[in-house]
User: Fold this.
Amino acid sequence: MIHNYIKMRLSITLLLLLSLFSVNMSAKSLNLVINELLVTNTENLVDDYGNRSGWIEIYNPSHRVIDIGGCYLTNDTLEPAKYKIPEGDEITLVAPLSHIIFYADNKTHFGIFHTNFTLQESNYIALYDRDQTTCLDSVVYPLPMPANFSYGRLKDGEPEWGMLAKTSPANNNAFVDKGAASKVFAERDPYGVVLAIASMSVVFLALLLLYTLFSLTAKFSIYVTKERIRKTAKGEKSETIVETHIPAEVYASIAMAIHEYQEEIHDVEDTILTIQRVAKTYSPWSSKIYGLRNFL
Amino acid sequence: MIQQDNLLSFLLNSINKIILSTGFANVEIGNIIMIIVGIMFIYLAIKKEWEPMLLVPIGFGMIVGNIPFLEGTDVGIKEEGTVLNILYSGVRHGWYPPLVFLGIGAMTDFSSLISNPKLLLIGAAAQFGIFGAYAIALAFGFPANEAGAIGIIGGADGPTAIFVTSILSPHLLGAIAVSAYSYMALVPVIQPPVMRLLTTKKERLIHMKKPRAVTQTEKVVFPIMGLLLTTFIVPSGLPLLGMLFFGNLLKESGVTNRLADTAKGPMIDIVTILLGFTVGASTQAAFFLTTKSIFIFMLGAFSFIIATAAGVMFVKIFNLFLKGENKINPLIGNAGVSAVPASARVSHMMGLKYDPTNYLIMHAMGPNVAGVIGSAVAAGIILSFLS
Assistant:
């Protein structure tokens, strides 16, 4: 009977838990996206050598540092590993929620951030993971594109693309309002009812799960204890019971001590019976050891 | 003669400069009021013994924070790089609250909760105070992030309130921290009238079933399972819940007594001193004495009342589904707020008042520690919605 009960509760708990787990099996290995690009550059961003060229902005939407070194940039669907971003250099680390710029100028001799293709060659650009097969992100952009105008995500990392009102190399594509989440929430829930219902449901769910689990544990624990008692009754003496056996004299002494304490009965006036640890007053002056020589 | 004149004017200028830099030259009425409030806190702590561990550091911090000085002398808590500013960064960036939770975990015995897990639900019900106060703060015109920080006062958990406020509305830290800790000190004053109002004499006399003995294995499993279940649901509560359950595991494992002793002893004492003192020192009159602070105090009291009422009412409703000796005394409903152990003590004292043989303390500790978990979970949800 108790077995069935425990099984039923266990099944319910497992079901509840499983319903909460949403494992994204298709998660990409690196969380990097192509965020913005500019094809024709006549009066826009200038590289370290004073040249202007098309550029690609990569964005790290995660909250951890990601090394883009070893990944690939390409403008050819048939050649994913067209430009390998060199590895082992600190400058390929992309900080959380930050951007990194690559110049599509076909001048790799200028350094890590200069690709071996230009953006005019095709209307496709992709970022591949180190395994050369996992496409981290790709985009098909409209050509021809007006000079000095960029095509990008309307908000950093978000799916909608379009021509941007102003270019923003290595910056946010849209103005970010830090308190936006709470403002939007308050607009949609002006009386706090949604927050109250949603939050209380989650609080209850969390504690309900704990409750279910520990009710189950309690049943199991009681069951185990009963089993042990049953076995003990059959003649198997439990070690714990032997260990915890306290002689009657001890009970009598404790009872006597409490009685004396409560009734303030004192047979020896200068002695206090206590269960508290007592530190003896000790002084080096009264110690013989300090009076002895420390050498032979 | 000219040289003497120059020397004299230099001397007078120097004296003038010293006078202008003294507190007397820079004092404002607000500073005086806050210093008086600080002294009052210390008086209440010493004379009435209201949460002395908190009110003494906060009160003294208030006095320190309101000593007037010339700006730019690099002594103030708000001036970048000063000693007080560096100590205050633990509050501003939310480092202290998880450390306090580590100590709380190492101090807390979850046995009463494990032996009677349904008491967990009372801890959940009492969190309604947070959301009730949030709704009222919104109605008063507070923006959502400020309303969220004000609402968390209803969780009756100082560290949680500071943690949430440091993320949502750092500019309200002083007012919210002082409000939260003050009301925690006032739990014995605020809760009993609400409990009396919402319970009948018959309900107050309910004797609860004696809690069963809990095994060591159950005590060890609790922090691990508690962490997994709560943080998988609300990961944003991880700093608080992680440290709370870690501290408890140190206590219950039986093999890390030294670590547990440090967490619940010297460490929590150090953090409490720094936390209380710097929170008090951050209540500079210019930032603190505003109408907003008055509203925060009002709403804080209100959130405590709602939380207490929600806990008591939940037990009454819960009792409709329970039979005989399983019934719960609604006087432990107030303990669902996480003011440990003050609110459990209130339940116990109220129980004894109506029946001198009814000892509720062990039963009340269940919802009380559940309240700690509940308020940390609620804080996580508020952060995930509003930050």
